[in-house]
Request: fold
Amino acid sequence: MELLHGNAIVGQSGGPTTAINATLAGVISGAMNADCIDKVYGMRNGIDGLLADRVVLLNELFTERADFERLKRTPAAALGSCRKKLPKEEDKDYEATFERIIEIFKKYDIRYFFYIGGNDSMDTVAKLSKYTTECGYEVRVIGVPKTIDNDLLGTDHTPGFGSAAKYISVTMQELLRDTAVYTVKAVTVVEIMGRDAGWLTASSELGRVLGLPSPDLVYLPERDFNMDEFFEDLSAALEKKPNIVVAVSEGLRMADGTFVGESAQSGAVDAFGHKYLSGTGKALELAIKEKLGCKVRSIELNLSQRCAAHIASKCDIEESFGVGSAAVSAAVQGVSREMMVILRDNDPGEPYSSVYGHMDIDLIANKTKFVPKHFINERGNHVTDECLNYILPLIKGECYPEYKDGLPVFATI
Amino acid sequence: MELLHGNAIVGQSGGPTTAINATLAGVISGAMNADCIDKVYGMRNGIDGLLADRVVLLNELFTERADFERLKRTPAAALGSCRKKLPKEEDKDYEATFERIIEIFKKYDIRYFFYIGGNDSMDTVAKLSKYTTECGYEVRVIGVPKTIDNDLLGTDHTPGFGSAAKYISVTMQELLRDTAVYTVKAVTVVEIMGRDAGWLTASSELGRVLGLPSPDLVYLPERDFNMDEFFEDLSAALEKKPNIVVAVSEGLRMADGTFVGESAQSGAVDAFGHKYLSGTGKALELAIKEKLGCKVRSIELNLSQRCAAHIASKCDIEESFGVGSAAVSAAVQGVSREMMVILRDNDPGEPYSSVYGHMDIDLIANKTKFVPKHFINERGNHVTDECLNYILPLIKGECYPEYKDGLPVFATI
Reply:
C-alpha cells in the first residue's frame, strides 16, 4: 500500500464528555508519531470553525508527555464544539459548503480528517468522505465515537460512557449514605441522563454486584413506565425501610408515548402562562408528595455527568486515548469512511480487555443501541447482574486531574 | 485538676456533611487514647437513639489506623443523625426526658459526652450540660461543630465547609469548561446551597484569584436581589461573550423579603393545584427565557454539596479530625458546656495554619455568621479577592476515598 503524505486535521462535535479530550490527545499523539503526517491541525468548533478557517496548529502545543496527560484529564471539548450537520445533496448550499471544505483542505494540505463525536458527527464523516471520493480529492476521513449515552451500534461501548457511569455510580454511593442518616420516611428520586437509552441509569445500580448499597428501584426508558406499578413498588419498599432511593432516566415514557415529566405537568403554568417542563424527577417528586405525603426530594445529576473530570474512569480515559491513536493508525493504513469501535476481547468471566477496530459508518450512523431486554428484570424496576457485569469494568480505576492550590489545572488550546 | 474517670459517648446530629465522620473518627481516636476514658460508645441517630438506648460500643470497631482512615473518608453521619431538639424546662416532657438521659448515662457510666452538629445540636449541648450540672451528675459535655454552611460564630470556619466549597469550586471549573464549548448565546444558572449565608456561593468564584475561569455573575443572599439590575448585568455580560454562567444562592431574596423562587412562581400551579416550588435557579431560568429568549439552563448542585467524599478537601478532613480529637483533650482537661472552634493562626500573607480552641456555647448557639459587607463588591454581583483568599486555604489538598473495583469503600458502623 502506498503511503499518503500530508497533514492531518482533527475536530470535536456534539455534546461534551469527560473523555472527549483524551481521544483528542490520542489523535494528536498518533498523528505526531506517524511518519507520513507532517502537521496536525485542529478545527475550532468542529466543522463550523473549519468552514470559517478557524484552524489551529497543534504540534507546537504538545511537546511533552505532560501536555498530553493534562489534555487527557481535561473535560469538555478543548477545541470547542458545534451542532452543525453538513447539507444534503438536494440542499442549495451543498456545493458551496463542500467546495469551501476542499478549499480549506488544499490550503493546509489536509490528507487525514478525524472527527470526534456522536451520531450527528458520523453523518458529517459519511457525507464528507462521499464528497471527497466523488470529487477526487484524496483524504482519509475517520469518525471517532464519543457519547456518554453508550447508545452507538457497532462498538462494545462508547468512549465517555465509562466516566459518566463512574460519576453516577460514585455519586449514588454517596447519596445512598446521605439519604440514610435519618429514620423518618423519605423518598429520593435521582434523575439521570438518557433520553432514549437507559445505560447511564443502569450504572446507578452498580453497587449491587459489589455487595454495596444500591438504589431500591431503577427505571429505564426502554420500558413503558406505569405509575400504578411504580406506587406498588414504592409502597412495598417503604414497608421494609424508611429511606428509599429511586433512579430514573430523564427519558421515561408512559405506554402512550408521553414523557413522565410531560404528563404529570399537563396543568402546570407559571405566572406568564408558560408550561413548566421540570423533568421526570420533579414530576415524580410531585406525584409522590401528592399520593404518600412523605418527605420527597428529586435530584437531577445534570451536566456533571458529562464533565466530572475529577472522578473520571481510568479505563475510559485510557481507552478514549487509545481509540484516538488507533484512528490515526487505521487511516495511515488506508482506512477511510469508517468509525472506530472498541471491541471487548475477553471471554465472560475472564479479566476485561479490549481492542480497537473500525466499521463502515453507514452501518452505525443514525441508529440507537438500547439496553437489551434481558438486561432488565421482569418487573422493569431493576437491571440484571449481567447488565451490571457488562458495565463494571468500564468504571474501573481512577484518573485524577492535576491540582494546584486546591483546584484542577486543565489544558487550554 | 482531678481526672474524671469513666466512659465517653459520641453522637452526630443535623444534616450530613462530607467531613462529619472525620470528626467522629477524631473523637473516637482521642477518647481511645485518653487514659481516663475506658470505653467509647456511639449513640445511633443522635439524642433520639440515646433515649431509646440504641448505643453501640465503638472501641472494638477501631483496632487499626486503617479503620480511622476509612471513617475519615466516609461521607454523611456513620452513626445516623436526627433533628431532635431537647425539651425546654416549661415543656411537660422535660423531667422525663432528662431523667431518661441520666439513666442511660448511669447504665454506661458516661462521663464524657460529645455531640457533633450544627446550631440545633449546640442547643442540645447547652440544655444537657445545664441539667446535669443542676442535678449533680458529673459529665463533661462538649459540642463539636459541623456545617457545610460556614455560618457559625466563634469559629474561623466550620468543619465540613472546606469540602463543600471544594466540591462546588471544582465542579464550577468543569461546568465553565462544559458551557464554553458552543458559540451560541446561552446562560447557565448554578444554584448553590445556603439559605441565609452565601459562603458556599462565594466559593464558586475561587478560580478567579488563581487566574482560572470563574462565573460571570455571583449573587449572595446577604444582598437584596434586584431583577432589573440582574438583567442589566446579564446583558452587559452577554455583550462580551456568548456563554454566561451565573452562580446564585438558594436563599436569594428580593428587597421585600420574598424568595426569588417564590416570587417568580406566584401564579404557577400543577395539575393538582399545587404551587411549584422549584427554587431560585429554576425561577431565574424561566425569567431569562422569558426576557432574552436565549438558551438557558439551571443546575442545582443539590446533595452532593454535603456528601461528595470523592473530592473532599484534605485541609477540611484533617481539621475535622483534629477538632474532634481536640474536643476530647479539652474535656479531659475539665472543659464542659463549650463548643470547639477552629482559629486561623497565621498573619495575612503567611502560609495558612490553624489551632483548635473552645468557646462558651451560649455565645454561639442560635446565631448566624453572614458573609460580611466588605467581602461583597459594591454592585453585589461578585465577591472580593479578600473573601476568596479567606476561603482558598480551606479547599487545599485532595483527600480521596479508597476504591475497590471502581467504587469507593466507605466505613459502616
About this structure: Chain A has two domains: 6-147+155-159+308-366, 161-304.
